[in-house]
Amino acid sequence: MAKAVIKSTGIYAPGDAIDNRRLMELTGIEFDAAKHEAKLGIVSRHIARLSGLQESSADFAEKASRAALEKAGIQPKEVGLFVVATDTPEYISPATAILLQGRLQVGEFESRAFDVGASCASFVTALDMVARLQVSDPSLRYALVVGIYNMPAYIRDGDAFGWSIFADGAGAVLLERVEEGKPDTRQGLGSGYLEGVFRADGTQWDYVGVYAGGTKKPVTKELLDEGKYGLELLQRLPGERNVKLWPPLVRRLLEKAGLPQSAVDHYFFTQINRSVIAQVMELLGEPMEKTTTVMDKYGYTGSACIPMALHEALSQGRVRKGDLVVLVASGAGLAVGASLIRL
Description:
With about 350 residues, the protein is an alpha/beta fold. The protein folds into two domains: about 1-180, Thiolase/Chalcone synthase (Peroxisomal Thiolase, Chain A, domain 1, 3-Layer(aba) Sandwich); about 190-340, Peroxisomal Thiolase, Chain A, domain 1 (3-Layer(aba) Sandwich). Helices cover about 35% and strands about 25% of the residues. The strands form four sheets. The chain has a five-stranded mixed β-sheet, sandwiched between helices. A four-stranded mixed β-sheet has the order 8-13-12-11, sandwiched between helices. Strand 12 (about 325-330) and strand 13 (about 335-340) form a beta hairpin. The longest helix is centred in the last third of the chain and has 17 residues, at about 240-255. It is globular and about 60 Å long. The model is unreliable at about 185-190 (pLDDT under 50).
């Protein structure tokens, strides 16, 4: 039986780090930086728009992907599938993944390319889809799954909520199809994607999102004049939502995989609120040493935050090949997902 195994990772964050004090200077907003850092854990972030960089989603995806490919020693032409996981695409159409394929392979190849949009749960959703597709198709040796986030491009001037939380970034994962049972010293036997569980509730669509620009609400001069565009917070999100959602999701994931919680080596959660992650770890009966948070360095990078946290944990030796890890992501709308993978 084949498995989809993580061969390498790569990340990209544009420009220099911008701390909370500098952010307020650049945007003219005000917020309690000390409280923000203590509760959310967000200390600094990278934002192309505030750094004077002419970069956007496709640029982030390309640079993170090239880093992953270079690390693995794999040429772009060897990749048969490109999937970009995001709700901040380069364009409404064509898909950002198609642009990524063009930049990396520079021409027409026997490749597939498409985007997955499930709000901030896009990466975990795409990882599950790609891993299952890769297992079913022996010709699909390498696949790139790239979580990207460019929400600052949609933030309106003076939006303290948006500027204080959201940031730019990308995290790429290169998956390799490996036949289980065959010696593979690079990856180790037993490695690979194992299971995923997901929940959705589309009745919660009207909380936070980018509502202008689609077919329901095309961008018009009148809309721009009214300030009803870009990132919009229509209703305040329930503060306890992820505390209630994540522990049962983790338990269901392990039940589905037939594994005890004691087998899990590390947890990765959506990186929007460190205090929420601490509460969830306490509810799971796990120490904070078994999770990684990166919002202090990168702010909240939506669909990119979990692959970015995974990359950081691998780079720092917090996780290593053979470890069993759980990835849990929440997205507006509502979309929630959890994946189990042995590195």
